[in-house]
Amino acid sequence: MNQPRGRCITSQLHIKSSETPFSGADGDAGDWIDMDSGFDGLADEVFDVEMETRTHEPVTELYSGASANYGRGYTFMDAFDADPFSSERQHNLFYPFSSGAEWKFASWLANSGLSMAAIDECLSLDVIKSQRFSFKTAKALRKLIELLPSGPRWKCRSVKTESPTRRALQVFYRDAIECLQHLIHSPSNNGLIHFVPEKIYSAADRMQRIYTDWLTGDRAWELQDALPDGATLLGVVLSSDKTHITQVGNRQAHPLLISLANISADVRRKGSTKSYVLLALLPVPRFVHPNKRLRGVLASRLLHQVISVVVKPLKMAAEVGRMMSDPVGNLKYCFTPLVAYIADTPEQHVIACITDNASAVSMAVSNQFGDPLRCAARTASKTRQLLIAVKRETRARNLSSYFQACRKRQLNGVVSPFWLDWALAEPSSFLTPEVLHHFFKMFWDHDRKWCSRMLGADELDFRFSLLRTCSGYRHFPDGITTLKQTSMRLHREVQRYIVGVVAGGIPQGALTAIRALTDFRYRSQAPKLTDADIAKLTASLQEFHDNKAALMEAGARGSMDHWRIPKLEIMLSVAPSIRSMGALGQWSADVTEHAHIDVIKDPARSGNNQNFDGQICRYLDRQEKCQLFMQATTACYLDLRGDSDDSDPSDGEENTLGSRQVTDYFKRAHALSAGDFPTAPRPYRTFASSTTAFHLASRPKMTNIDVDRAAELYGLPDFKPAMADYLARHHHNLTHTIGGRRRATPDCQLPFDRIQIWSKIRIQSYSSYDLKMLLPSQGLHVSPPTVNWPFGRYDSVIISRDGNKDWPHSGLHGHDVVQLRMIFKPISGSQSLLSNMYYAYVQRFVTTSVDQHAGMHVLKRALRSTGERVGDIIPLFQIRAPAHLIPCFGQKANSQLNSHSSDELSSSFWLNKYWTKELFHACS
Questions:
Q1: What does DSSP say about strands 69-72 and 330-335: parallel, antiparallel, or unpaired?
Q2: Phi and psi (nearest 5°) for 161?
Q3: Are strands 879-883 and 796-800 parallel, antiparallel or unpaired?
Q4: d(CA 428, CA 426)
């Protein structure tokens, strides 16, 4: 076998040329789904929607000579076949279980969360006994599960401390290299792991870089430069954070998670994909030292001491390399530097070994946190120099004097940081800005309080209570200032509305500062950014600093006259981090904190509240064995059936990825138009244009109602003349505008007398950042006045009025914001074109220029000379996206308004671009 020549990379850096021809990147406008609707006679017209031509295709430069193959290793199935019981599975695939049916039942019991007593009770039922399963009790079931192939095995060792603790400490951990190999071989990550750094450019001129996954950033390229020829770079991602196991007794766990930066960012961003595995359960010590501050120093030292032990195999591999197998069984010469450590702000300070009054990633101290310029990076070499200076001054064993010497240099008293001898580890790089705590938590702790002080808590709460209820979004009937035990999800929900809610009620300079900070957060969270996008977010942060004095003048900071906010200083590192590490969202603690439920909280609840760490490990071991066995037997079963690897996962079992499924209305529309469901009612209730899918209930809300009665019920006196005008100007023209002179009279005659009406529609589209990413559908309501909704429930949407403009890339150019007032279908002859299409009566808003302080468009209701609202009929397929409007409240909101009347009685609105990231992207 052709083995690579080993080399210590810290003793000699190997720099190589990275020039390579460019190749086209995947993904273009052709990935958009453009389907036939299935409408009789109008299919070609409905979906012949032109999209703007993409003249600039991305190109990719791959790192030359990276990730060579060195012979044959093994695959996931090779490991499964190497199990001691593989010979038994030649006759019975599901051994030690007697059949596939028994295995499925056993797997369900093992993953049900039932206690052993409950499982015993279930197995004692006569109907279960009649199945003659090979296990009769929960204990017997667990013994069979222990015979299944195992993942990385758990180890345990005692931990010695330099000061007494209230109880002996242990650390449960697994081999870190085995955990990485487990992630690489996981079928869930098949085809989603990449090994070659790349630079993606928006066009062949190479003027604009595109940053997405970690491998597209500068850091991966720099690390590959430092490795031998043909070496494979495996970016290690760690995460730690204390979490409560029980409310009573205040028992805590300190999980250390591990992942691989080479896994696609889209996968790692989803908690359901289990891209993070538990590497260790760090001890949570209770020192008996009398000084509380020094107890914290001892805890920090212990943390670094234990992590250093756990990650020792990774350090060795980062230094001299390690042969590992890729997903298809090729041997790679792998190096494992630490590239990201995901943690909240206090944990980041502990990891960086600095005090709370300093930055974890730069040399800034507290009085510099509000400065608009970034200080020099806090590199590993600088920390090493400071530690050397402290050791010259005092001994580490003298805890008090050592800490005093450290504190003068903004160090926290740790003697040996675990990353100091980890080759290529750089804390200013691997401690990335973190969206959950640095953005959402900062918004809740600061921005929200600033707005409350400037506007007044009562006024702020009242304005939030006036917001209209939107399907799938949080409503705040009692406001936001009195909310208790808030979650990060709630912080996100409040942030969607804050700019529009406070606009007009606070000074313009202060509004500009709040809006600029919100723009910065939204731009930073994009899953794909270019150099131009990074320049915009940098400008947004600078705009905040230029206007933050207005916040101070308006009393937003209360009695404080400074900007010593650590999270504000971290924002200066966002732009450099994106260029170095790729999109910011892939490093969010949202995923790792969600993983705590699966790897800590659920296992702890299944035990007897004794020896939590050991029980958690045994529980996870059984879970992994079941998961691996399920994946392997499913693969064998599909192989026996002769199914191809690229078959649609929706046609088989969907639990291998464990992903949350999103209903694909594009796919459903395609199946209908292809004739897969010949008995489906026509016109089809699910249909799609090139950009948007639509879904209506199979049965309308009103199946047969007179036109005049419908117009009266929905309060649309010009419904009939609007329909007549639509028919008069319909000459095979797809895009219909709204407004203009009303030509038909109120007593005009229509070619139909009755209609069907729907009160709700779901629309769906693909992400503007990734044309292959299907977004969840959004429900829209179109209901007449009722007891609960005295003014009706009419949602707003964005529609197309120019077929040559493409949403969302064209923004509002060629589009209008309208309010849906009715969704209907005429009841006419079976061959009539009218009865084969769905229509909407909409009322248009006039869009003005963007307000420079709020950063949003101001909308006013379009009125005719008679004072009536401008409304017209359009085909339903002209809808492009949902929209959200916030009434312009002015200096003080009208006390007569409520959440039902605010939309109908207000005359001007903000088009709330912060409602969704897709809407922000289109309107910014």
A1: antiparallel
A2: -115, 155
A3: antiparallel
A4: 6
In this prediction, residue 420 carries a pLDDT of 96
- 539 close to 527: Cβ distance less than 8 angstroms: no
pLDDT value at residue 829: 67
Torsion angle of the four alpha carbons 392, 395, 400, 406, in this order, in degrees rounded to the nearest 10? 30
Q: What is the pLDDT of residue 838?
A: 94
Of 643, 104, 97, 131, give the one whose Cα is nearest residue 89.
97
CB 563 within 8 A of CB 548: yes
Beta 232-233 vs 330-335: how paired, if at all? Answer: parallel
The tokens describing 828, both together, are: 């006419």
Using an 8 Å Cβ cutoff, are 211 and 218 in contact? Answer: no
φ, ψ of residue 192 in degrees (nearest 5): -115, 10
Are 276 and 586 contacting, i.e. CB atoms less than 8 angstroms apart? no
Percentages of the chain per state (helix, strand, coil), in multiples of 5? 35, 20, 45
Whole-number Å distance between alpha carbons of 69 and 868: 73
Structure-block tokens of residue 453? 């002080």
Rounded to the nearest 5°, which phi and psi values hold at 278? Answer: -75, 120
Cα 225 from Cα 241, distance rounded (Å): 32
The reported pLDDT for the residue numbered 731 is 55
Q: How far apart are CA 457 and CA 452, in angstroms?
A: 5
φ/ψ bin of 555: left (φ > 0), alpha (ψ from -120 to 50), beta (otherwise): left
pLDDT, residue 12, reads 38
User: Under 8 Å CB-to-CB from 1, ≥6 apart: which residues?
Assistant: 70, 71, 331
Contact (Cβ atoms closer than 8 angstroms) between residue 899 and residue 462 = no
Secondary structure element (H or E) that encloses residue 574, with its range: helix 574-581
Cα dihedral sign for 798, 799, 805, 806? positive
In whole angstroms, how large is the CA radius of gyration of the chain? 31
Q: Which residues of the chain have pLDDT under 70?
A: 1-56, 247-249, 638-660, 731-735, 829-832
Q: What are phi and psi of 856, to 5 degrees?
A: -130, 155
- Residue 831: the pLDDT is 54
* 620 sits in which H/E element: helix 612-641
Q: Name 451's Cβ contacts closer than 8 Å, sequence gap at least 6.
A: 460, 498, 501, 502, 506, 514, 556
Which residues, 6 or more positions from 312, have their beta carbon under 8 angstroms from its beta carbon? 176
Instruction: Indicate if the alpha-carbon torsion angle 646, 651, 657, 663 is positive or negative.
Output: positive
Q: What is the DSSP letter of 362?
A: B
Question: Is cis: bond before 152, omega within 30 of 0?
Answer: no
Residue 246 CA to residue 268 CA, distance in Å, equals 28
pLDDT score at 689: 87
Rounded CA gap, 909 and 858, in Å?
6
- The values of phi and psi at residue 570, to 5°, are -65, -30
Helix, strand or coil, per DSSP, at residue 389: helix
Of 301, 311, 317, the C-alpha closest to 341 is 311
Q: Which of 89, 67, 91, 71 is nearest to 80 (CA)?
A: 89
pLDDT value, residue 228: 96
Q: What is the DSSP string of 816-848?
A: EEEEEEEEEEEE--TT-SGGGS-EEEEEEEEEE
Q: Residue 3 contacts by C-beta under 8 Å, 6 or more apart in sequence?
A: 70
- Read out DSSP for 268-282? HT-GGG---EEEEEE
Cα-based distances in Å from 478 to 450, 475, 490, 792: 19, 9, 14, 22
Helix (H, G, I), strand (E, B) or coil at 826: strand
- For residue 808, cis peptide bond before it (omega within 30 degrees of 0): yes
Give the list of residues 6+ apart from residue 705 with CB closer than 8 angstroms, or none. Answer: 713, 754, 755, 756, 757
Q: What is the pLDDT of residue 643?
A: 47
**What DSSP designation does 791 have?**
T
**Tell me, what's the pLDDT at 639?**
63
Q: What is the pLDDT of residues 597-626, one digit of tens each?
A: 888 988 888 777 778 888 899 999 999 999
